[in-house]
């Protein structure tokens, strides 16, 4: 009998599998009949608890029930997949550089902001969420890289990279530190962290159209400027300023353990630094001597309205008319300290948090991380080229090789 | 077991041969099957997917027929669930992969053409410059039709708007709450947010026609006058921009709307591309070129992974097989420990241990080896990690198999004068291999596609300068993952085509392997 029971159990499991397939095929609008109306918000596992703490407030002010779901991994991919099926959320919180991909997959709708609302935002943040002339998200936090230095080891902010390297070399010689700089590279490179140096030395990724949008047909990688820029990066590699052995997993610990006086990182590093009790200051990333500013990329965390959500009007109400208000922006900052994108909120919190203004200063004039889908073709080859060059590879061949790979991927 | 025997002996109709508990369990489980079937069928009916409904109904009916009728069909009771599971978990995914591989399914080509058109039109809705921003209340008219109650705070005028157009309202008929929200309008019922949420789709679809555009809701409390500048024209199968006059014609080959200059709108749709993905794998120089070098390393990686883990596992198993060994349990526990730890985390830890400047290995041995920057040290490193992760499993299965070898055989060999090595070489190993070869083959097949082992340690690297598409430790699976997902977004159609190639390779190797095992078994029988 036991065997027979096992057989039926297997059959039950099978029916489950079949029904699983069945429901994923289901494309019709079942209208969520019987289920209560409301709003479904997806956020990553860091932000979901923050929003959860505002849920009852949202609910009473919006007058609908709200469900906040944490998606801990691959939020963007999961959202796109869910949009194809029948289980898309109504609102998603993510980085602005997802916009290009989300738009080409028809996953998000433009957000109609009034002129008054638009002027309330940090202009760079608003520009970042603007794609093909439309605003696609309500920005709430801005983040960018800066130079964080240990003020006990290095009291003076460096005026240039050369200046910083000289000071760092002295510290190392005196045995006070072990590493010159902690800027994550890793075995496969890191385009985001390399960009400020690349930009300072004259490189660019995509040209810009007249309206300020990035132009995928004007690829900067492989152009003479990019080769010159990587020559400078190569020099830093030879001096041991940049190392492939410093990656995302150890760059912040190196700084908090006092093994280096300089760290290039973003606001997310502050939690660990404060915990370690390191005395620090935040300044703009210095550029190469006599060359351009080392501008980091600006990343903008935003609220998006899903195209395939079941309660789109509520989602619009939430994103366009509610998230854009100062109280929520400030409250979100208090729960998760990232520089608010709303000017009124930023001004309010910067008096109590001087780091914010310093990060904002480091990000002044920073271009938004390109949101065009073509950007995804850059990350991997660019990073690997950086890693190879830091490791001592021939600059011209490496950059041209990366440019070919990127160019081919964009053509596809 | 005895229950089955009893049941087959007593071929009487009904359940005379089954115990009461058996009956209860059977009925409960069948009830679960029925409930699941109903749960699966409801959305299928909603989707009007009658084939799906048919399949679920047929499968359920079959299961009921088999388990509720007398025991004549005993073999079927085992065969059918197995077959259905095989279909669900093996054949359907393979067919799905095959069907995906002949499409351009991927980022930008996920939905249907209609969805792309809706998305293009929605994305082109812009606010008419200089138009007022209205305060909005969602209401219903007499016959439950949706009405927008609008007010222009600048002029203090009020309107009611529906699909037919705007109608002026007398300000005295409208009342506002403290927050400035419209709370009442004579002749209309204002909806609460929750009520409005239920009619979300209707609200989104309503654009009150006015001169130069339509008034659309922006959420529940604001409205704006907007125009959709891009519209689909059936006659020319194209999208036209009414402001700039640009035209994008549908291209059924690529699944994009493309203009005369070859520029496409970002929103595309899924189209069948025939064997294009396969031809790309075979003809694209960038894919075909490194394919062989990746393939040989892939074989080397899979074979070495199996050999070294089996070698060490077997060695440990033999060492601990001694009868008189003390604290055997302790040793066994220690050996099995790596197997008990999550491979995912261990791989990341090993990656950090191989770090040139900060890694444990270089620090401990006073080395300065760039493990992951030289092809051969990187390959050595990943095999070493494989060894550590994999030998406990081999130890376990080898221990089991050793215990199954009758000690008489070995004693007989000893009496006949065989040395320990001879006995192992001629008796133990062959007997072990008979039972373990299928496991070794499946271990080979698993390692052949061991994505994590590479992706989480070297990431496929080191890469030759200027070539970021193929690295020295890339397996076919990590290499194609980069091709399909590392470039411009996800290309599922292409990835599926490559998977089919990999499937063919692994299947061929496995078939050959199993054939040889069978031959071997016959020799030793």
Summarize the structure.
Chain A: One of its GO terms (biological process) is maltose transport. Chain A is α+β, with helices and mostly antiparallel strands and about 400 residues long.
Question: Helices and strands in order, then pairings?
Answer:
The complex is a heterodimer of chains A (412) and B (525).
Chain A lengths: L1 H24 L12 E6 L3 H6 L2 H8 L2 E6 L4 H10 L6 E5 L3 H6 L3 E2 L5 H5 L3 H6 L1 E2 L2 E2 L2 E6 L2 E5 L10 H13 L17 H10 L5 E3 L5 E6 L4 H16 L11 H6 L5 E4 L4 H7 L3 E4 L15 E8 L5 H10 L4 H10 L7 H8 L3 H9 L13 H15 L4 H17 L1
Parallel strand pairs in A: 1-2, 1-3
Antiparallel strand pairs in A: 3-13, 4-13, 5-6, 7-13, 8-11, 8-12, 9-10
Helix pairs in contact in A: 9-10, 10-18, 14-15, 17-18
Chain B lengths: L1 H8 L10 H27 L3 H19 L5 H28 L11 H11 L1 E3 L5 E8 L5 E7 L4 E6 L2 E5 L4 E3 L5 E4 L3 E2 L2 H6 L1 H6 L1 E4 L2 E6 L3 E7 L1 E4 L4 E4 L5 E5 L4 E3 L17 H8 L1 H35 L8 H13 L2 H11 L6 H6 L9 H30 L2 H9 L4 H29 L2 H5 L20 H11 L5 H33 L1
Antiparallel strand pairs in B: 1-11, 2-3, 2-8, 2-11, 3-4, 4-5, 6-7, 9-10, 10-11, 12-13, 13-14, 14-15
Function (chain B): Part of the ABC transporter complex MalEFGK involved in maltose/maltodextrin import. Probably responsible for the translocation of the substrate across the membrane.
InterPro entries (chain B): MalF_N (IPR035277), MetI-like (IPR000515), MetI-like_sf (IPR035906), TM_PBP2_N (IPR032550)
Organism (chain B): Phytomonospora endophytica
Describe the structure.
The complex is a heterodimer of chains A (412) and B (525). Chain A has helices at residues 2-25, 47-52, 55-62, 75-84, 99-104, 115-119, 123-128, 161-173, 191-200, 224-239, 251-256, 270-276, 312-321, 326-335, 343-350, 354-362, 376-390, 395-411; strands at 38-43, 65-70, 91-95, 108-109, 130-131, 134-135, 138-143, 146-150, 206-208, 214-219, 262-265, 280-283, 299-306. By secondary structure, chain A is of the alpha+beta class. Chain B has 3 domains: 20-100; 125-228, Periplasmic binding protein-like II, CATH 2.40.430; 285-524, Orthogonal Bundle (MetI-like fold), CATH 1.10.3720.10. In chain B, the strands form 3 sheets. In chain B, strands 1, 2, 3, 4, 5, 8, 9, 10 and 11 form a 9-stranded antiparallel beta sheet that branches. A 4-stranded antiparallel beta sheet of chain B has the order 12-13-14-15, covered by helices on one side. Chain B has a two-stranded antiparallel sheet with strand order 6-7. In chain B, helix 14 packs across helix 15 (420-448) and helix 15 runs antiparallel to helix 18 (492-524). Chain B is elongated. The two termini of chain B are 28 Å apart. The chains are: A alpha+beta (412), B alpha+beta (525).
